[in-house]
Amino acid sequence: MLWFIMAKNAGKRNFIAYNRSNNWVFVTCYDATATPKETFTEEYCRRLIDQSLGKKIPYNVLSITTWNTTPRVARHYRSKLIRHGFVVGDAAHCFPSTGGLGVNTGLGDAHNLVWKITAVENGWAEDRLLDSYELERIPIAVENSRQSRLNEKKVHELSRAAFGDNGQSLEERMQDPKARSEIQLALMDNYNHFDSLDLQIGYVYGKARSPHRRAGHYIPECIPGTRLPHAWVYTADGRTISTLDVTDYSAFTILLSGSLQRDNRRPLDDVSFPAKEVYLGKDIIDKDGAWTRLMGLERASSAVVIRPDQHVLGRVTTIDELQNLVNSFVLCSSYVPDHEKLCGTDLQILAE
């Protein structure tokens, strides 16, 4: 998928396979103050590509474009003028391509927003719920933009380590024990560039990320705001499925190991929002019990409430607690924090 080309005096270049058989992207860095964009004619770009490939092969150039890798995140994801207008994906944030965090961040935006629009349109949530979209997603974009920028810096440092300051070839540098050690250290320093699972699925809505946590150090947990942890479980007819597959994208999923206490004997059908009950031991079977313990569902009177976007809303033991928990979110979003506090003071990368 991704091929790094490192050659002396060539800077950082990449080939990205959009489709390995017939669609590739060639990327090269350039200094806009020294090289005007008009330089990038098809003839010029073909020379760069041929040089990077090491030989000439037939190909068609479909398009040539330039872009700036400066990270940018919108201050607001919901329009202050058009209240039903929202920005998602690249319209909300642009990162350096290093690390590939932009696509998944954009998918997370849509994942967060679409069920909230559905809830408001169907009348079981207040319009204020839509304000929680930017409050939850902006801190994620800020964190991912920081990591993308750091990845960009680290990969340039790797290029400097590979060729040094004396115009040596990579082969010559690798024969020098000291230089080889520098290259190995620079490679290891790019670890988070290629392993960022915790940034991709380990973020927690409403909780600031620890500055000491590695981008790839994903720890499944069941606390409000975290994504429902994946595990392989079995259905009643013996099929293997992911725990993520039991959720309903247009309803709250209630994971239970037993029946909730019925305050005033009210059935679950009386709640004011769409809900799906999933019983452990009946609808899904967790054979070794590890996921059940992780979710805190070994007690029969406990239930975990999962939002339609597969994030944990909280834990309840009664129907009244369930109704109150969901109401606190969909009616007033009371637990959603201020995103500037979550992002810290480093907000100069945000743009109007």
Automatic annotation (TrEMBL):
Q: Name one GO molecular function term.
A: FAD binding
Return the InterPro entries for the record.
Answer: FAD-bd (IPR002938), FAD/NAD-bd_sf (IPR036188), RIFMO-like (IPR050641)
State the species of origin: Exophiala viscosa
Location of the FAD-binding domain: 17-145
**This protein's superkingdom?**
Eukaryota
Asked if the keyword Flavoprotein belongs to this entry, the reply reads: yes
Name the cofactor(s).
FAD
Output the SUPFAM superfamilies linked to this UniProt entry.
FAD/NAD(P)-binding domain
Name recorded for this polypeptide: FAD binding domain-containing protein
Which keywords does the record carry? Answer: FAD, Flavoprotein, Oxidoreductase
Cite a single Pfam family from the UniProt record: FAD_binding_3
